[in-house]
Structures are given as C-alpha cells and as structure tokens.
C-alpha cells in the first residue's frame, strides 16, 4: 500500500473519531438560551378547573419528573416545547381536558444585597431584574447595575444584564444570582467629599496665615 493511501486512511479514521467524540460530548453541555431541561428544574402544570392535575413538580437527579395521572417522564432529552406537547397529548388521551399549560421553571437563589434573599422559581420569560424584584428588590447598599452569577460556589463569567431574559442567559437551576455590595467609598461618598473639603479649607487657612 502506498504512503499516500496510508496517510489518507489515517486522516479518515482521525476525522471519524473526532466526529464521534463531538457527537458524544455536545449534549452534555447545552448552550445559553437553549431549552434543555435539567435536574432541579420544576415542571409547572396547569389544567383549568382541575386542581388535582395542577401543580409544580421537580425534576429529580435522574432527569425524570412524575406528573399526576400520566406518570413518569424522562425529560433529559426533552425541550420545553416537546415535553409540553407530549404531556398535553397524553392527558387528553386519558381524560377530556381543555386549557392545559406547561412551563418549565428554574429554581435559582437570589442573594446578596436584596431585601428578601431566598430560592425562587423563575419563568424563562422573566428577566434578571424580575428575579431581583421577587426578592423584594435591592437594598440601599447594593452596587448599581452589577449582577454576579455563581455556580457551585464559583463565579461564572456570564456578564448578566438586568434586562436579560432567563431563557437567553446561562442561568440554571441551582445557580445563585448575587447582588454585590457597593464599595466603602461609594457608600460614604458624601462624607468623604465633606471631609476632603474640610481638610482643604484648613490647609488653605494655614497657608494664608
């Protein structure tokens, strides 16, 4: 076999292996703004005039959720829309039901300089500002416009904006939206300016004398 054929065969095998590895690793990390459903998310099911079927149901660590009447669903490979369509179809086959709605919420902790820190369910259509509002807004010491995303105790380089929708951000269930505290000088700017002005006045007076 010629060297050219050997080189070609090696190149083909390398590319095939690379494609296979890519196919195996891509689903593990969904890009920001995707509709991937993950453990910790909450499936909110609303069936008009049927409280027994309505409620909020958590996705467990195995990527499954159990819904009333229709049972368990493996949601690890479902999008919000595909799960919604599947559940509506299954419910309507078992029981005559109208006005069914399904939304996947993300459970996120809002902490730092907010008035009521805590764990909140976020609708994907909500903004980061809406999440802060659920925690009763910022305190008087909050840093203006600054938002930090934490995951597993580490800061994520996310560059979150207050008007950014949750669905368009990398925010996941289990994450923490953290509002930092303003720096000491920023919090005491008026006092610092007043003090500097007083010192300047004293120095000018001494120089004149």
Structure description:
By secondary structure, this protein is an alpha+beta fold. The chain contains five helices and nine strands. The longest helix is centred in the N-terminal third of the chain and has 23 residues, at 3-25. The protein is elongated, with a radius of gyration of 27 Å. The chain starts with a helix and ends with a helix.
Task: Put the structure in a nutshell.
This protein is an alpha+beta fold and 209 residues long. Helices cover 33% and strands 22% of the residues. The longest helix is centred in the first third of the chain and has 23 residues.
Which descriptors apply to this entry?
single chain; 209 residues; alpha+beta; 7-stranded mixed beta sheet; 5 helices; elongated
Strand percentage lies at: 15-25%
Order of helices and strands: HEEEEHEEHEEEHH
**Main structural class:** alpha+beta
- Average pLDDT across residues? 81
Strand tally, please? 9
Assembly of the depicted chains: single chain
Ends: how far apart? 101 Å
Shape: elongated
- H/I helix tally: 5
- Helix-residue proportion: 25-40%
Output the radius of gyration: 27 Å
**Biggest sheet, in brief?**
7 strands, mixed
Q: Which residues sit in consecutive blocks of at least 5 with pLDDT less than 50?
A: 3-33
Structural topology:
Elements: H1 3-25, E1 42-47, E2 55-58, E3 64-67, E4 71-74, H2 80-94, E5 100-112, E6 118-122, H3 128-134, E7 148-151, E8 154-156, E9 176-179, H4 184-187, H5 189-208
Parallel strand pairs: 5-9
Antiparallel strand pairs: 1-2, 1-5, 3-4, 5-6, 7-8, 7-9
């Amino acid at each position: 076999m010629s060297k050219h054929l050997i080189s070609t065969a090696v190149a083909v095998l390398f590319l095939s292996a690379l494609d296979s590895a890519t196919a195996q690793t891509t689903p593990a990390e969904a890009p920001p703004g995707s509709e991937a459903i993950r453990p910790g998310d909450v499936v909110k099911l609303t069936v008009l005039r049927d409280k027994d079927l309505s409620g909020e149901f958590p996705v467990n660590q195995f990527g499954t959720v159990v819904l009333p009447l229709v049972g368990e669903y493996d949601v690890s490979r479902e999008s919000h829309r595909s799960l919604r369509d599947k559940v509506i179809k299954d419910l309507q086959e078992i029981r005559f039901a109208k006005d069914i709605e399904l939304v996947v919420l993300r459970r996120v902790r809002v902490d730092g300089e907010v008035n009521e820190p805590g764990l909140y369910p976020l609708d994907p259509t909500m903004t980061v500002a809406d999440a802060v509002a659920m925690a009763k807004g910022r305190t008087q010491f909050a840093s203006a416009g600054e938002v930090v995303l934490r995951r597993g105790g580490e800061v994520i380089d996310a560059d979150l904006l207050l008007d950014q929708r949750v669905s368009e951000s990398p925010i996941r269930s289990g994450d923490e939206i953290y509002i930092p505290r303003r720096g000491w000088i920023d919090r005491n700017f008026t006092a610092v300016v007043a003090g500097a002005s007083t010192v300047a006045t004293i120095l000018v007076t001494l120089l004149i004398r």
